[in-house]
Amino acid sequence: MAQPVQTSTGAPAPGGHGGGFPPFDSHSFGSQLVFFAIAFGLLYVLMSRVALPRVAGILEARHKTVENDIEAAAKMKAETDAAIAAYEKALMEAKGRAQTIAGETRDRLAAETDAKRKALEADLAAKLTEAEKTIAASKAAAMANVSQIAGDAAEAIIKQVAGESVPRASIDAAVAKAV
């Protein structure tokens, strides 16, 4: 069985408990202060020599990591900006070259088309001249035949109407005058 707890006077506490909170017991108060001072001193030394330097090292390492990351990000941003500027410059140069090539191609095709058009016009003009000569020759031949046919028809009509024969020279002269 358990022994009943005694008070500082040596009398057992009612209900088997001691009489008061032990840290507030005035008989052990001095020794408690000494042990508290020793524990506080050891804890202070332990914290200042071991724990706090480690925490400070971790904080410093994190600070350096953050600074390095910020510097790396700034460097990458500068590289990205330079790459974008180079890309835009190359794009503008490519657009300029494309426009130059398109203009040269357009001019070359226009010159080729113009040359083909002029050659075709010259060919058509030559064919037109040849056709006009052929038409003029055909017209002259037709007109010569018309005069002869008109003379023959006039001679036949005169024979039928007048019943006489007129000299061919006078019929040809009259047809030439009419034509």
Quick structural overview:
The protein has 179 residues and is mostly helical. It has helices at residues 29-161, 168-178.
Structure characterization notes:
- This protein has 179 residues and is mostly helical.
- The protein has a domain at 140-179.
- Helices cover 80% and strands 0% of the residues.
- The chain is built from two helices and no strands.
- The chain has helices at residues 29-161, 168-178.
- The longest helix has 133 residues, at 29-161.
- The protein is rod-shaped and about 190 Å long.
Q: How many β strands by DSSP?
A: 0
The dominant shape is rod-shaped
SSE arrangement, N to C: HH
- The computed structural class is mainly alpha
Low-confidence parts, pLDDT < 50 over ≥5 residues? none
Assess the beta-strand content as a share of residues.
under 5%
Distance between the termini: 170 Å
Average pLDDT score:
85
* CA gyration radius, whole angstroms: 67 Å
The major pleated sheet works out as: none
The tally of helices reads 2
Helix content: over 70%
How do the helices and strands line up, and which of them pair or pack?
Blueprint: H1 29-161, H2 168-178
What are its keywords?
rod-shaped, 179 residues, mainly alpha
